[in-house]
Amino acid sequence: AEMERTFIAIKPDGVQRGLISEIITRFERKGFKLVGIKIMVPSNGFAQKHYHGLKERPFFNGLCNFLSSGPVVAMVWEGEGVIRYGRKLIGTDPQKSEPGTIRGDLAVVLGRNVIHGSDGPETAKDEISLWFKPEELVSYTNNAEKWIYG
Ligand code: DAT
Ligand code: MG
C-alpha cells in the first residue's frame, strides 16, 4: 500500500460542541490509522503560521483569532490516499457540502466549519512538521490492516 499521512485538526468549535469522538470515528471506521494526536490551544502566531498561505485574504485575522480561541485537537492520520480522501470525508463549504460529509452533517457556515484537513502532499508535510515533533508520531501495525488492504 502507498501509505501517506495527512494533518487533521478539530477546530475550537468542534471541540466545544462535543464533536471530537464523532469526527475521529469517521476517520477510524473508514480504515485510516491514527498515528499522532494531542490537544492544545495554539497561539495567534502559531495560527498565523498554520494559515500562512491565506495571509493576504480579508478573513485572515478573524480566522487566526478563531483558531487560537480555544483547544484544538491536532491529529495525523495515515493510509492509502488519506490526504485526498480525508478532504472528501470533510467536505467543503458547509452550505455546499453533501450530507454524509463532516461539514455537511455537522456545520452550517464557512467560518465555523469544525475541522481542518491538509489540501495536498506539500501542505500535509508542512502542517505535520509545524504541529508535531517526529517523536510524537507513532509507526505501528494495526491488526486490521490485512483486512483493510488485503
Ligand atoms: P479549507 O478549510 O476547506 O481548506 P481554505 O483553506 O480555503 O478552506 O480556508 C481556510 C479556512 O478559512 C476555512 O476552513 C474557513 C475559512 N474561510 C475560507 N474562506 C472564507 C471566507 N470567504 N470567509 C470567511 N472565512 C473563510
Ligand atoms: Mg485549506
Bound molecules: 2'-deoxyadenosine-5'-diphosphate, magnesium ion
Number of helical stretches of at least 4 residues: 8
Q: Low-confidence segments, ≥5 residues, pLDDT <50? A: none
**In one word, what is the shape?**
globular
Strand order of the largest sheet: 2-3-1-4
Strand segment count? 4
Task: Report the span from N to C terminus.
Answer: 9 Å
**Can you write the helix and strand succession as a string?**
EHHEHHEHHEHH
- The amount of helix comes to 40-55%
Mean pLDDT across all residues, rounded? 97
State the major sheet. 4 strands, antiparallel
Fold and architecture overview:
It is found in: Mitochondrion intermembrane space; Plastid, Chloroplast thylakoid lumen. Keywords: ATP-binding, Kinase, Magnesium, Metal-binding, Nucleotide metabolism, Nucleotide-binding, Transferase. It catalyses: a ribonucleoside 5'-diphosphate + ATP = a ribonucleoside 5'-triphosphate + ADP; a 2'-deoxyribonucleoside 5'-diphosphate + ATP = a 2'-deoxyribonucleoside 5'-triphosphate + ADP. It is an enzyme of class 2 (transferase). GO terms for molecular function: ATP binding; metal ion binding; nucleoside diphosphate kinase activity. This protein is an alpha+beta fold. 41% of the residues lie in helices and 19% in strands. It has eight helices and four strands, in the order βααβααβααβαα. It has a four-stranded antiparallel beta sheet with strand order 2-3-1-4. Helix 3 crosses helix 4. The longest helix has 11 residues. The chain is globular and about 45 Å long. It starts with a strand and ends with a helix. The mean pLDDT is 97. The structure holds 2'-deoxyadenosine-5'-diphosphate and magnesium ion. 2'-deoxyadenosine-5'-diphosphate binds next to loops.
